[in-house]
Design a protein that fits this description.
There is one protein chain. With 586 residues, the protein is an alpha/beta fold. It is built from 19 helices and twelve strands. The protein is globular, with a radius of gyration of 29 Å. It starts with a helix and ends in a 5-residue tail after the last helix.
Length: 586
C-alpha cells in the first residue's frame, strides 16, 4: 500500500509545493562534445533507422561521435553500418564500430567502450539501438548540463507500438513519478533507452551487473549530482516485446533490483535527503516487494486454512478477481478489462520478479564474465538449487542455535586439553565453473597439535596419526570437530551435503593424477558430509581419492533430478547421523 499508493501521493503532495527549477532557455554558449555509446548484438532490424535518426540530430556534426560495440553479431548488423558509414562521413559525423568476433556480453562490451571514450568527451550518451531520439535531444542535453549540479539527463520514454496496453500505463506512471522526483531535485533512475552522463562521472560496472542502465547513472547521482528527466526530450521505443519477452525481462529486472541494493546501499544514508527517501520508497521497496507479496500471500492462505474468516474472504476474492480477468481476456477475447487488467499485470510481473530473485540467490547471475558467449554446463535445475540452498540456510541456522551449548563445551575442552587456539581455519577449494574456482576459509575445532605441519608441509592424515590430540581423536570420530562448518554453510561457502572440500595443495596433485578430479565441484558447493564420506573410509592416498571421486560424481549426477536428489540427500543425512552417534568417523 505504501509503495504503490501512499508514496506516489505523498511525492505528488510535496512536489506541488516545491518551486520547480526551470533552466534558462538561453542558447548554450559552449556546446559539450558528446560521445554516443551503443551496444549491438544482431540489431539488423533497427540499426539503419537508428543511424539515420542520429544523423538528423540538431547538433553540430563535429561536436558528437558515434561508437558502436558489435558484440559478436551473427547477422548483417556490421554490413548495414558499413553501408551507412559513407553517408555519415559526408555529413562529417564520425561513426566507429568496435567489432568483437565472439559474444562477450553487454556489460563487458559497455565497459570497453567507457574506457575507450570517457577521456575524449564532455558527455557520454548511452542509448539502445531500438530507441529513436527527438531531433533536439542533444540540444536539450547540452542545455541541462549548463547547471553544474546536473550529472545525468534523460527524457520522456514511450513505445511506438506497445505490445500490451498496460505497458503504456506503466511508463506513463513511471514518467509521472520522475517528474515529481525532479521537482525535489531527487530523480532516482532514468529510462535506460537513453541517458546522458557527464563523462568524468562515468565508471565501469562489475561484469556481473544485471541492470547496468540503472547502475551507471545512479553511480553519478551517488557522487552528489542531480538527474533531470526532461519531458521535452522524446525517446521512442521501436521494439515491442511480446508477452513472453516482457516476462523474461521482468525475471532479469527482479534479480537486478535486488542486486543493485548492494551496489548502491550508500544511497540510503540520511544525508542524501530526498534522494534517500525516494530511493528507499521507490527502488529499494520495489526490489523486496515480490518477497513481501509472496510472504503475505502464504500467510493469508495459511490463515485461511486454519479457519480465519477474513483470510478466507481475502483468498477467495483475490482468486476470483484473477479468474474473472483471465476468463474475460482469454475466453471472450477482451484485451483490456479496466482495473482488473492492471491488477493482473502487476501480480504477474511481481511473480516473475520473484523468480528472478530466487535465481539470483541461487547464483544464476553470478558469472564474473562471459566466456566467448558460451555458458557453463548447468545440469542442476532451479528447483534443486533453490531447495538445496533453502535447506542449507534453515539447517545451518537451526544447527548453530541448537548445538551452541555443545559447541561452547567443546571449545572449553579443546582450550583446556592442549595449547593453541580453539578453532582452526584452512584454505579449501570451493564451487567451480568453466571460468573460475572459488577459495574459502573452512572452520573446524582444532584436533591437532599446534604447527602440526611446520616441518612436513601439507600431508594427508593417517591412522593413529601422532599429530592428533586425545580430545581431537574423539572429536573426529563423532564429527563434532566439523560443527563450525555450519557457519560456512550459512554464509554460502559450503553446503550441508556435497563433495568434501579439498586443500589447494592436494587439489593440484590430485588433479594431475586423477582425470576429471576438478569437475567434482563443478556448479556444486562442497559439503560437510557427502556420499563419498559415508561410503568410503578416510582416503590418504591417490587410489583412495580416486574411489571417492566416483561417489562424488554419483552425487552430482543425482542433482539433475529433483526426486533423485531428495532421495540421495535423505540417505546421506541419516547415514551421517549414524556415523556421529556410533562414533565411526575417522
Amino acid at each position: 500500500m505504501y509503495h504503490h499508493f501512499i508514496y506516489p501521493l505523498l511525492l505528488r503532495f510535496v512536489a506541488k509545493r516545491q518551486k520547480v527549477k526551470h533552466l534558462a532557455p538561453n542558447a548554450v554558449q559552449t556546446l559539450p562534445r558528446v560521445g554516443i555509446i551503443m551496444c549491438a548484438y544482431n540489431e539488423e532490424a533497427y540499426i539503419r533507422a537508428k543511424l539515420d535518426n542520429l544523423a538528423m540530430l540538431d547538433y553540430p556534426p563535429t561536436a558528437y561521435d558515434i561508437h558502436i560495440g558489435l558484440d559478436g553479431c551473427t547477422d548483417n548488423t556490421e554490413a548495414v553500418i558499413n553501408s551507412v558509414s559513407q553517408d555519415l562521413v559526408q555529413k562529417r559525423i564520425q561513426c566507429t564500430p568496435h567489432v568483437f568476433t565472439t559474444n562477450q556480453g553487454k556489460v563487458k562490451t559497455l565497459n570497453y567502450l567507457i574506457e575507450k571514450t570517457k577521456d575524449q568527451y564532455d558527455v557520454l550518451l548511452f542509448t539502445d539501438v531500438s530507441a529513436l531520439l527527438s531531433i533536439d535531444a542533444l540540444r536539450n542535453v547540452a542545455q541541462a548540463f549548463q547547471s553544474p549540479n546536473v550529472g545525468v539527463v534523460s527524457g520522456d520514454y514511450q513505445f511506438l507500438n506497445p505490445a500490451q496496453p498496460e505497458q503504456t500505463k506503466y511508463w506513463q506512471y513511471q514518467n509521472k513519478l520522475k517528474r515529481d522526483e525532479g521537482a525535489l531535485g531527487a530523480v532516482i533512475g532514468v529510462p535506460g533507452a537513453m541517458f546522458a552522463v557527464r563523462a568524468k562521472l562515468v565508471k565501469t560496472v562489475p561484469e556481473n551487473t544485471i541492470n547496468d542502465d540503472f547502475v551507471i547513472p545512479m553511480r553519478a547521482i551517488e557522487q552528489g549530482y542531480e538527474a533531470i528527466v526532461d519531458p521535452d526530450l522524446g525517446i521512442v521505443e521501436l521494439e515491442s516485446d511480446t508477452s513472453d519477452q516482457e516476462l523474461k525481462r521482468r525475471v532479469r529486472i527482479g534479480a537486478g533490483n535486488l542486486q543493485q541494493l548492494g551496489f548502491l546501499k550508500s544511497m540510503l544514508r540520511m544525508r542524501n535527503g530526498w534522494k534517500a527517501f525516494n530511493f528507499f520508497s521507490g527502488k529499494a521497496m520495489r526490489a523486496v516487494m515480490p518477497i513481501i507479496i509472496a510472504v503475505g500471500s502464504i500467510s493469508i492462505v495459511s490463515l485461511a486454512a486454519l479457519g480465519s474468516t477474513f483470510a478466507q474472504i481475502a483468498t477467495a476474492a483475490t482468486a476470483g478477481t484473477l479468474l474473472v480477468e483471465s476468463a474475460l481476456k482469454h475466453g471472450l477475447g477482451i484485451k483490456k478489462v479496466p482495473v482488473l487488467s492492471s491488477l493482473s499485470y502487476l501480480v504477474v510481473n511481481y511473480a516473475y520478479a520473484l523468480v528472478g530473485i530466487v535465481k539470483w540467490c541461487c547464483g544464476h547471475y553470478a558469472k564474473s564474465w562471459n566466456n566467448g558467449g558460451k555458458r557453463d554446463l548447468d545440469y542442476v535445475p532451479l528447483s534443486v538449487r533453490f531447495g538445496k540452498r533453502t535447506i542449507d540456510i534453515l539447517g545451518s541456522a537451526s544447527g548453530l542455535l541448537m548445538l551452541m551449548p555443545l559447541m561452547i563445551l567443546t571449545a572449553v575442552v579443546v582450550k583446556v586439553s592442549s595449547k593453541g587456539p580453539v578453532f582452526y581455519k584452512q584454505w579449501r577449494v570451493g564451487k567451480a565453473s568453466g571460468s573460475w574456482v572459488s577459495l574459502f576459509y573452512m572452520y573446524k575445532f582444532r584436533t591437532m597439535v599446534v604447527n602440526a605441519e611446520q616441518n612436513t608441509g601439507a600431508v594427508w592424515s593417517k591412522n593413529n596419526d601422532p599429530r592428533i590430540t586425545r580430545v581431537g581423536r574423539f572429536l573426529r570420530k563423532t564429527r563434532i570437530d566439523e560443527l563450525p562448518q555450519l557457519w560456512n554453510v550459512l554464509i554460502g561457502d559450503m553446503s550441508l551435503i556435497g563433495p568434501r572440500p579439498e586443500r589447494p595443495d592436494f587439489h593440484k596433485k590430485l588433479e594431475f593424477h586423477i582425470p576429471f578430479f576438478s569437475e567434482r565441484t563443478m556448479n556444486v558447493k562442497p559439503g560437510i558430509s557427502g556420499l563419498a564420506q559415508i561410503k568410503e573410509a578416510y582416503a590418504n592416498d591417490i587410489n583412495g581419492m580416486r574411489q571417492k571421486l566416483a561417489w562424488d560424481m554419483a552425487y552430482t549426477l543425482s542433482l539433475s533430478s529433483p526426486m533423485r536428489w531428495i532421495k540421495t540427500e535423505i540417505t546421506i543425512v541419516f547415514a551421517t547421523l549414524k556415523v556421529m552417534l556410533l562414533a565411526k568417523g575417522q
